[in-house]
Design brief:
Length: 309
């Protein structure tokens, strides 16, 4: 039953078109065993019909509109209109399992000092078939600054305490990829996180998903480099160089996978410059030498392939 009191949880769902999938996402929240919530839908400038969403008649649902600005801006708009003590996020093609809010709210209420939690999740295909479980919930504790380099957290598994907003921590709207990692890193700088190794959400994956696309990974890591270069996280010089070194390493790998050998060699060079700060210098040098030899082999293969066509 909805009262004039603020709900305990605000669930924010940004969407752009894909009306049918968004309706499935909304229903997965309405079907929660936990009932003290509001749903904040943010239409990020849809260009197709969303008549079924506009026609939803439920006092738990708030519908907001903005011009198309991307998920970071849409989530921020939802956050600013939220009333809950806890805020959860759900992408419009993903699903909450029935006990998601019950379990996660319980963890937060038991650990009031924690600002951020996330859970493991099921991967599903476009038809909703379960592909497996990602045990991201084992990622827990004091994860800063490592979260900038390795972040297995999926958006629909996240719940934050409203204390985050008291520190003026929001999504950085200038980034369209890895905006979630940047947001989480700003929180992790202030608080440990709790990982819950129970799959409580379903995340839809495809070949176009950012997490499985090397070009998206390249853009994301470059965004993180740009972000930490602004010095807003107050990293120590050692932390800054260590994070740079690791990201250079990942960028080199993804450029290698994309066959962009010149970029690969460029970032290997960056990594070698930062290698002084690595805790595994000898092992890293050996890996790099192997990768450079593989890269030259790939480049020769690409040249031969080009001559045949």
């Amino acid at each position: 039953m909805i009262t004039d009191l603020n709900p305990l949880v605000s669930v924010i769902i940004p969407f752009f078109n894909r009306e049918e999938l968004t309706l499935i996402s909304i229903q997965s929240v309405l079907d929660q065993s936990f009932r003290d919530f509001e749903i904040i839908l943010v239409d990020d400038g849809s260009t197709e019909s969303i008549d079924k969403i506009i026609g939803l008649d439920n006092p738990r649902i708030i519908l907001l509109h903005q011009s198309n600005q991307g998920p970071a801006a849409a989530r921020n708009l939802g956050i600013r209109h939220s009333r809950g003590k806890y805020i959860a996020f759900l992408d419009s093609d993903d699903i909450f399992l029935p006990d998601k809010l019950t379990h996660q709210v319980g963890v937060h209420e038991t650990n009031p000092q924690i600002w951020f939690s996330h859970t493991s999740y099921q991967k599903i295909d476009q038809a909703g078939n379960i592909l497996g479980v990602t045990h991201s919930g084992i990622f827990t504790g004091c994860v800063f600054p490592d979260i900038l380099v390795y972040c297995p957290i999926a958006t629909p598994t996240v719940m934050i305490n409203r204390k985050v907003l008291e520190q003026s921590i929001f999504y950085d709207e200038q980034y369209k990829i890895s905006e979630d990692v940047i947001f989480y890193s700003k929180i992790a700088r202030h608080s440990e996180i709790i990982g819950i190794d129970i799959p409580l959400s379903c995340v839809r994956v495809s070949e176009k998903s950012h997490s499985t696309n090397s070009n998206s990974q390249i853009s994301g890591y470059n965004n993180i480099l740009k972000f930490i270069g602004n010095k807003t996280l107050n990293l120590s010089e050692e932390q800054y160089q260590e994070v740079n070194y690791k990201i250079y390493n990942f960028l080199a790998l993804h450029y290698y996978l994309e066959g962009k050998v010149e970029n690969f060699i460029k970032f290997i060079g960056h990594s070698c410059y930062a290698i002084y700060f690595s805790k595994q210098k000898i092992q890293t040098i050996i890996v790099y030498l192997k990768m450079i030899l593989m890269a030259f082999g790939t480049k020769l293969g690409l040249i031969k392939k080009s001559n045949k066509s």
